[in-house]
Sequence to fold (859 residues):
Amino acid sequence: MEDSATHIDKLVRRNARLKSLIQKYKQSHHLQHALLQLSEQASTVAELTLLYPAIHDILQSFIPSKSFYVVLHNPVNDLLELSYFADEKDGLSVPLKYDQHFKEGLTGHVFKHGKTSYFTKEQTQQAVEKGQFKALGTPAEHWVGVPVYRDKTIIGVMVAQSYDKAQSYSEQQIELLEVMSLYLATAIERVKKRELLESEVKIRTRALTQSNQALNEEILHRKKALERQQILFKISELATLSENLEDVYQHVHKIIKTITYADNLYIALYDQQSHWLSFPYCVDEYSDNAEPRPFAKGYSELVLSTEKCQVIDAKRAKSLIKQGVIERPRDIPPEESATSWLGAPLKTSQGVIGLIVCQAYNNKHEFSQDDCELITFVSHQIANVIQAHLANQELKQSHQKLEHRVAEKTKELRQANMHLQMQMEERKKIEQQLYHDAHHDSLTSLPNRSLFLTQLEKTLQHYQRYPEQQFAVLFIDLDKFKDINDQLGHQAGDQFLISVAESFSHCIREHDLLARLGGDEFVVLLTHLTEPQQAEDVAKRIIEIMKKPFCMKGQCIQSGASIGITYSKTSYKHTDEIIRDADAAMYYAKNAGRNRFECFHPLLNATTSQHEAENMHHLDDLPMHFRSSEIITLDESAHAESLLEAFGEHPVLGSTSFEVLKKFATDRIQHFEVELSLLKQAFSLAAQTKLQKVLFPCSGLVLERINFKALCHLLKAHDAKKICLLFNEQEIRYASAVQIENLKSLVAQGFSIGLNEFAKDRCELNLLTEFKFDYLLLSSTFSKRVLQQENYHLQLQGVLAITHIQNIQVIAKGPSIFNYRTLLDKHGLSLFIGKQHALAPFNKETTSTHSTIPLDLNI
Fold:
């Protein structure tokens, strides 16, 4: 028995515990469900006025809370203001009649202490008697107030109350209210933000709508103004495009059709002296022939007498007839009587000359005041055009009469002078032919030496007065011309010269001068040059044309052109000096390999003995020094790199860049030895002057097979990270397979390389992807043209896009780059060559790579 009783007791306790757990789980479920509903409502409702009823509905599912309200604290006036109120007994007017609202009542008590409070009716009465707060409204049997917090600051109170004594609030229900209050502040904030966002959206939408309406009105206004302006343009064109009045009337009719109904239109002219109306143009569906008539009391006369636009419909017509202002013929059929009539006077500075009329039958159209304004707007212009054509017509008729009389008077003189004129024309042709023969080549019809020298003399004199207007002379000698004469005959040689002359003329501008000096020698005078590169461009075009072989009688011979270029200089006093220098540059180009061009250099005319000339061109005997140029940004801040260039003191040229001097090297071995020695001294200078990175120009000669090993040995013996070898873009473009392989080998060995004078004559982007360059120096010619021509700007954008991908630093180079770097910065360039300055003397002894040729490089 005891065991059975004990067992039953255990079951009872277990059931009680299970019921307690079920109750807790149920409470947790209710709480979780209520919070989910609250979160959902906070995310969906658009206004606070909708949020509070939703919270009330949620609470009613779990708490007997038919009476529920929420008050929030207003920090501006420090009052508790009602946000939501639902009560079984008190209406909304009851809580709002108190001056202090809820602050002095039970709600204010909860707000003041910041704790959840539960009062029965008796407890409320006792607290009121003790003076803890005032009794406001109908006393509730059960009252629960829960504070609402936001970030540890109380912002209001949420209250549930019951007027039924049996409906009290359990601890679980009060706990549910407390949890709901924790999320209420967040929910209110979210809904307020949504309300504010929607309010801003509505305000902005309203503003945009108003702006769009104003914009549409302005567009409509401008459209009408533009249409009127187009109409005025069309009318103005009539004064010059139309030759006779009939064309003017037809064009006017077309223009009027674009602005109003004008299937029936006529133009009437009024003669003030005879008081007659004529109708030079009439298009009407019932009558196309309007006979002239005297001034009477018609619609047209009303327009002329009032000098105003008139719109007449059937009603107004009856009124005017009744008043006696208008008289209409009685034999007009009703269907041929206009149901709507519009007429505008044609006014000019001399008065009204007529009118233009549009009319509609059978109620096809009803003319409005807008039609009246439009036709009045254009009628003044039409009147001026018609008046001008009428005046021209009268003048033309007068001229015709006068011309007829003059023709009769001059007929005899013309016949007498005809024979004399023929003689004069023949003599003029003979003189022109004699002048042409004296100044032009008989074979090619090009200007000859005499005409060329005359024009060159004028150009030189003009240049002496205006030195800023540069010019250049190209001396052209055809290669292998003797072979064409010998192999194909002199007739083929003549045909070849004619073909060459025609081809050369396509390579120059209209104001330039191409002449034949004699034999296979041609000259070109280029004027109005803005930069020397323009002359080189002409030379390149000529050389490119001459690459095409000359074929005749089944045989082809490859010719070419050796070109010498000299530019205008203030030292030129006579044309002979210009021809001499251009000729010297041409012979230098021919001796250098033909089919190329060379610019004149003072060394070509140096008047020294043969032995002195040879010594003058020995690079290893010339004192040399270095000049450094900082790489700067737009704000002139120094970059890590510096450009290091070698200069030699030449007895004729003075201080000259090594890039120029190396063209006159005695032999290639000497050139390489000097360049290798300069590179070695560049390493020493970089270390002595503490330059972080040196960009040093090198020639393609160091990449040749016999020299590359010595170059690599020198680079490995020094800190090669401090030096980047710059190679000329033109040399790389025409480099041999061995040179290209050695250039790639430098990159593979970890040495830094760069591209110098890029895009001087053309922009080849494939070079940038073929080799791993670290630096790219744009030529000054390309940098200037970027600012002058749109297509060069597009090429620059292509260069910048590839260099960005290849991680290549782009530097703008040129003697005047410092002046227009701000403009280039807008095109995407950020690094520029700064001002050049000489380095301090370097006294360290240098070791020549060739013991038999000592180098006297004064650095």
Summary: The two ends are 124 Å apart (CA to CA). Residues 607-616, 841-859 have pLDDT under 50 and may be disordered. The CA atoms of residues 487 and 555 lie 9 Å apart. The longest strand covers residues 638-650.
